[in-house]
Every structure is written in C-alpha cells, then in structure tokens.
Amino acid sequence: MNRVYRNPILPGFYPDPSLCRVGEDYYMVTSTFEYFPGLPIFHSRDLVHWRQMGHVLDRPSQLPLDGLPASRGLYAPTIRYHDGVFYVINTLVLGQDSGRNFIVTATDPAGDWSEPYWLDDAPGIDPSLLFDEDGRCYYTGNRIPPSGEQFPGHREIWLQEVDLNTMQLTGERIALWDGAVKGGVHAEAPHLYAKDGFYYLLIAEGGTAHNHAITIARSEKITGPYLGNPRNPILTHRHLGLDYPIVGTGHADLVETPQGEWWMVLLAMRPYDGYYYNLGRETFMVPVRWEEGWPVVSPGNGRVEFHHAAPDLPEQRWPTSPACDQFDAPQLGNCWNLIRTPREKIYSLAERPSHLRLYLRPETLAEQTNPTFVGRRQQHINFSAQTVLEFSPQQAGECAGMALLQNNNFHFRLVVCLVGGGETAVRLIKRAAGTETILAEQPVNGGRYYFRVSARGQAYRFDIATEPGVWQTVAEGVDGRILSTPVASGFTGAYLGLYASSSGQPSDNVADFDWFEYQGEA
User: Fold this and answer.
1) CA-wise closest residue to 48 among 286, 297, 303, 298
2) Mean pLDDT for the stretch of residues 455-464
3) How far apart are CA 209 and CA 122, in angstroms?
4) Contact, 3 vs 310, CB < 8 A?
C-alpha cells in the first residue's frame, strides 16, 4: 500500500513557502512579518516530515522591526543553494508602499547567517534568485510598471543580474511578464527555473486571498520574451466556492527529487465555522507532472487535497517535540516568537531555573511596540493550552497571564491584575477594532495561578485554577472570529502565549511561568 501524507505539511501561520534541495536534504523557509526571530528554517529528507532548525534572522542587528504596523516586516523569502553557500533573499516591508530587499548567506543552514546585504535600487517585493548553469545569478521580483499602473494592483515581474562579489544588482533591468489574466492583480512571488532548454517563470496572481492563483510562462532566453502556458492558471481554488475546505491556493515553489519527481509547496487557508481562518495561511504540498513542456499540478483533479500519495523518498520522521515546555533549556525553543525587535531584555530563562521569567514593562499588547509577549502559533482548529504563573501585582496596571493574538487591535487577554479596592482578580479582555471590553472578571488569590485556554472551532473557553485540576470557568463559548484574517485584516495567523505588562508605568515586578503545554487535535 502506498504511503500518503496529510496537508498542510506545516500547519498554522507558515505562509509563502520556498524550498531548495541539496543532495538528499531539503530546506524550507516561510514569512514571519512583524515577528522575531524571523524566517523559520526547516529541514526534511522526505518532503513530508519537517523539523525546524532555527531562524534565518535571529539577531536584532539583522532585523529592524521597530514600530512597524502589524503585517509589515518580512514578506516572502526565497532560499537557494549554490557552490557551498545558502542564500535567502527577502523583503523588509516598512510601510504601505515602502520596503527594502536584502540577501543573507550561510554555509550551514542552521546558522549563523550573515548580516543583511541591502540591495540598492531594487523596487517591489517577493525577490527570488536563479543560479544559471554558467554560474551567473539573476534576481527576479515584482514592481509597479515604470509606465505606471494600467489598473489598480497592476504589477510586473522584472529581472536583473546579481554581482555576487558586491551583492548588488548589475546590468540591464528587464521586464518579463505581468501575468496570465487580463486585468489580473498583483503579479508576484516569481521563481525562475531552468529545465530542458527553457526558462520557466512561476508566479502568483489574483491577490493573496480567495482569488489567489498560480500561473507560469516560459522562454528560451532568460531575458524573454515569455509565453504564458495556454492552460493557465495551473492551480487555483477560487472557482470552487467559499465553502470549499481549502482556499486561497498560491505563492508556490518547485523542487525536483533525485528520483525525478517534481513537487510544489504553496500556501492556502482552511476556513471553518464560516469563512474564517484563524490559523492564517499555511504550507501545503502537491505533486507535479510535466506534460508537453508544462507542469501539471495535482494530476487527475488539479486540486490541493488533504491527502496525497507520498513522494518516492525514504520516510524520515523526526523526534516529536514534547507537548509541554518546562523551560529547562538555556534558550527558548524554536516555536516561540516575540513581537518586533527586542531592544531590551524582556525575559529570562536563567534568573529562576526551570521558569520563564517575564519582566513587566510599560509596553502593552495594544501598541505597535515590542511588548513583553512570548508566543507560539495556533496550529490546530481544536486545541488546548495550559500554563502556571506565579505573580503578585503590586500596583494598578500590572498584569500577567495568557494572550491570544491576531494583532495589536484584535486579541484576547486573560490576565491577573489589581481591581477596585486593591483586590486581585482575573480578567478576560477582548480587544476588537481597537476597542476593549471586559468579558469576564472574578476574584482570585494565592499567587500561583493555572491558566487553560481551549477552542473547539470558533468557540473558545477560558479557565483558571489556584489548585491543580480545580478549574473555574472564566468564560466559555467566546466567539474567536476576531482572531481571523477576514475580520482583523492583515497577513498573519493567530498566536497564543505568555504576556506581562505594567501598562505605561515603570515597574520592577516580574511574572514567572513554570511551564507551558500546547496540545492540538488533527
């Protein structure tokens, strides 16, 4: 019986996948926007089971995210390998219409990666690299056409050579293609491949929501002209309806195995309880077959399915990460992220052994700052997360607990704080479109608090205890749709994690978390 694999291969907020093969090993990176460290890098030997090795950008000097709005930051990386060196090229988006493209390199994909080589005069987003057979390197990206937009969202793909000695663009800049659909928006995510005497230009178009699509063109010369595949788009789900279980398929990359099989990784979303997808854009994989000089994606039905036959590669499973993080390691695990670049110390794993200590700082989760938040992705539609906190608020505004986050204006906070009369209470606070509402409040005491947050679809439940297993319900049946992109906007998925703040006031207080457990259901 043939093995099968389950999509998504990277569940949760892992959009814009790019991968490369080196011998029998595969490496993949995805976008991270305002989160730090940036660009998780994964390793696989069978294309199905992936292990995170670390992050490409894990030093503040590499990643200036200070003050950026939600869903700005790192967009759409590409990873490539040439002559013993790994290259990741990426865009740091600063504002609505501004950004900078850069390259980082490493000889070991686990790091350390170099400081960024910032590219001069490289407009647009979604840069990619092709190392041609003659050793020359070419940059592709998207941009507004120099003659201007013919319609809102009109973009074109352009090419220029890269001087690997200076890490700068050189030579003539050439427009390649503006997409397959007349009037189609946002031609982006270009990747060039050389195969059988042709250069193939794979792109996404239609926008990164429901109308997302993957199209392809080819040319005998790298500079063009490029002829679109008459069967474009080669993959889309936009015609299958809003109630289809996998939507928004796009932003793809291709890889060939040593056995000659071709595979495509791409992003897509899984709506549930209506057209809401709290998990964000996730990484899926589909088989590809070449016919008459063009790729056929998911032969036989042309769709991304939850199950496909596995690649013809030896199965390689990695050790399963424990559900509970005891905070015993000298560094945070790879699943954890901060929001924006940390410029001061916000946590410690050493000051109190086997605990994650968070420092109460004036910054809050509602601001475009670097708050004291250590979070991980929600990766399952149904999940349960627990933690235990030791904390005593000393003044008004001090709080600590758990948070479920879509962005600074859409999130939930379940925190212990001081209320009227100086009593300690637990509060569940909902922030939606910038307006805060206290959904529930009840007194607590004891200094050691157990938190539990769980979800069944869009119904979220919040519990607290002061003794192990003696749970009190703070709120249940809470509508979680504010954690979904169609409500909150942007490009990220939901996070959950540990939070502390002094709400605008200086504080020397700390919050100690003994462990954190996350369990999801497939």
Assistant:
1) 286
2) 98
3) 26
4) yes
Query: What domain range is 170 assigned to?
Result: 21-237
- Which residues does the annotation mark as catalytic? 16, 188
Task: Give the 3-state secondary structure of residue 334.
Answer: coil
210 occurs within a structural domain: yes
The total number of structural domains that make up the chain: 2
What CATH number should be reported for the domain holding residue 402? 2.60.120.200
- The two three-digit tokens of residue 262, written as one number: 């071709």
DSSP letters, 72-106, are -EEEEEEEEEETTEEEEEEEEEEETTEEEEEEEEE
Contact (Cβ atoms closer than 8 angstroms) between residue 317 and residue 49: yes
Cα dihedral sign, 298-300-302-304: negative
Query: What is residue 503's three-state secondary structure?
Result: coil
Residue 84, domain CATH: 2.115.10.20
Distance separating alpha carbons of residues 396 and 371, to the nearest angstrom = 18
Residue 339: inside a domain, yes or no? yes
> What is the per-residue pLDDT for 422?
87
pTM of the model: 0.97
Percentage of the chain beyond pLDDT 70 is 99
- Evaluate whether 487 touches 276 at the Cβ level (below 8 Å): yes
